[in-house]
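Journal club side-thread
Mid-discussion, someone asked how the predicted structure for our own chain would compare to the paper's figures. Pasting it here so we can look after the session.
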Amino acid sequence: MGVIKSGMCSVTLAKCSVEEVLQTAVRAGLQGVEWWGIGHVPHGDVVCARRVRGLTKDAGLEVSSYGSYYKVGVSEASGLSFHSVLDSAVELGAPTIRVWAGDRNTCDADADFIQKVVEDTFRIADLAAEQGISITFEFHGGTLTDRNETAVQFAVQVPHPNVFFSWQSPHGYTTDHCLSGLRSLLSRLSTVHVYHWTIGSCEKNILNETIRALKPADFHRHPLADGTERWKEYLATVRTTGRDHFLLLEFVKDDSAEQVIEDARSLMLMLNNHKALDAGCGRQQ
């Protein structure tokens, strides 16, 4: 049985220092941190990465991942070298590097662009493998993993043993639709980003075109406790892999450290309830 660990993405507290992020994570009782590759551990700044690695260890926490903003097939030509990203990940002690599958939705990408992303994926996956680090694609709009179907399509195109996928609940869809996307990536699931957002009157199983028309003001963040019922189902599904996974709190309501602590409490309550249920089932057998 795999181990499910709790953590947070440091970008959630983008305005806080590394020390403040760690203090919040410790207060929240979390086990790890995904470090932000722009603000907290800038790409290529190996001195900073080494320092943050030490601070994380001293706080009794793990580095769950390096949250880079390397856009595969795009960033190299835009001035962000993957070697600089990898150097930081190595010094940070990150087991995996989070990346984006290009910089556009699949419906906006032609065959040449997709091929460029695929080729770059194999290149960086090989480079990272030499350092014992994996590649994790974010499940995210504005990339080739923008929807359930396109994420599966892209995963088929990059059958590299060192390539995995993160998952997060897409905004505005039903629980069943979200679960379908999660299940389709389970065999290559790495981390999971945890939050509870709604999009007002559009909160239904909406079309991707509708999502693209939304503005930032249309998105509403809520305490994780408000999404308990759906997250119970997501977590139960994640546990079926039998592998280790980090569940990372991200973009909490009001970007508040106190909300991180409250959401961590809700997350751990759900995880503990699952453990208790498993123990109960074991006694009955």
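Post-session note: The CA atoms of residues 236 and 274 lie 8 Å apart.
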